[in-house]
Structure formats: structure tokens, C-alpha cells
Design goal:
The protein has about 190 residues and is an all-alpha fold. About 75% of the residues lie in helices and about 0% in strands. It contains 10 helices and no strands. The longest helix has about 35 residues. The protein is elongated. The chain starts with a helix and ends with a helix.
Length: about 190
């Protein structure tokens, strides 16, 4: 019960990680624009990888705007959140391989990995949306990758998936914040 309460508190305090997802929407919009530019695929891929460098600064900005506290160093589960963020870098050798061997598939692989890495956040924030959307995004992107011949449609679809996830997480956050507020009122 204590672990569930800690995760519930973390979910409300950090607003289910929505600031990072809003930053992700901006990044994937940038990627959409990159793949619409009349450039060679190698140049588009390099620009896509460079665009991810804006992720953290944008997440910090959006955290301030929505008043989400994602810094969890004073929280018992803080290290877990850090490990979940670092774990996604383990997939980068695969991205570099695709970059060299199958450059037209890089944006697809990147989208699948992005979607899949959301799964453990279902446990971390104690929210079903991540558990559902991680495989939906990964499988959805894979299926689209087989059938779409315009690369810019993949990051556009990713933006739509992220917006759905953000909406679901917002509803979860509001419900948990209301319960937490009720609990605090009863304790007074």
C-alpha cells in the first residue's frame, strides 16, 4: 500500500510526466517538418537525431509552465525514474545500425523505440495510459511503416499518438489530484 501511495503522489506531483510528452510533441513536429524538406535522406536523418537535443530543455520549460515537479531526488522512487530515462539509450546502437544499413527506416525505428519506452512509466506513475499506449504506438508505427511511403506521415502519426496519450494522462492526473485534495481535507 505504501508503494502505491508513493507512486500516486509522484504521479500528481510530476503530472504523469506530461511536460516531457508535450516536449515530445514539439520534437516530433520538428521531425515532420524535417522529412518534408527537400533534402537527402541522410541529411534528414541527421537533422532528426539532432532535433532530439531540444527534448530536455523543452521539458524543463513545459514543466515550469504547467508547474510539474519532475525532479524526484527527494522522493524514494526518484532513482527509478532516472533509470527509466537512461534505459532508452540502450536502444541507440540499433538506431545507429539502421542509420547506416537502412536509412529510410530510421524514423520508423525511432518512433517504435519511442513508443515502446513508455511502457515502464505505467508502473512508475501508476497509470494505465502508458501501459496501453506503448504497444499501440509501437505496433501502430510498425504497421504504418509497412504501408506508408511518405516518411513525414510517420512523425505526424506520432504527434497524434502523443496527443492522445497526453489527453488520457491529463484525465488521470485530474482524478488523482482531486482524490489527493479530498484526502488532505479529511486529514485536517
Amino acid at each position: 500500500m505504501k508503494l502505491q501511495r508513493l507512486r500516486h503522489e509522484l504521479s500528481v506531483r510530476s503530472k504523469n510526466g506530461m511536460a516531457f510528452l508535450v516536449a515530445g510533441v514539439i520534437i516530433w513536429l520538428m521531425i515532420t517538418i524535417i522529412y518534408l524538406l527537400p533534402l537527402e535522406i541522410a541529411e534528414q536523418n541527421v537533422l532528426m537525431l539532432f532535433s532530439t537535443g531540444f527534448m530536455f530543455p523543452l521539458a524543463v520549460l513545459f514543466s515550469k509552465l504547467i508547474k510539474a515537479d519532475w525532479k524526484t531526488e527527494n522522493h524514494p522512487l526518484g532513482d527509478v525514474g532516472l533509470y527509466l530515462n537512461i534505459a532508452q539509450f540502450i536502444y541507440f546502437p540499433l538506431l545507429f545500425w539502421v542509420f547506416m544499413k537502412s536509412p529510410h527506416d530510421l524514423v520508423l525505428f525511432f518512433a517504435v523505440i519511442t513508443g515502446a519506452h513508455f511502457f515502464p512509466y505505467g508502473w512508475f506513475y501508476h497509470v494505465k495510459a502508458y501501459y496501453v499506449m506503448a504497444p499501440v504506438i509501437s505496433v501502430g508505427m510498425m504497421v504504418m511503416g509497412w504501408s506508408l511511403n511518405r516518411l513525414w506521415l510517420l512523425p505526424t502519426a506520432m504527434v497524434i499518438f502523443l496527443l492522445i496519450l497526453i489527453g488520457w494522462l491529463f484525465l488521470d492526473y485530474k482524478k488523482k489530484a482531486s482524490r489527493l485534495s479530498d484526502r488532505h481535507r479529511k486529514q485536517r
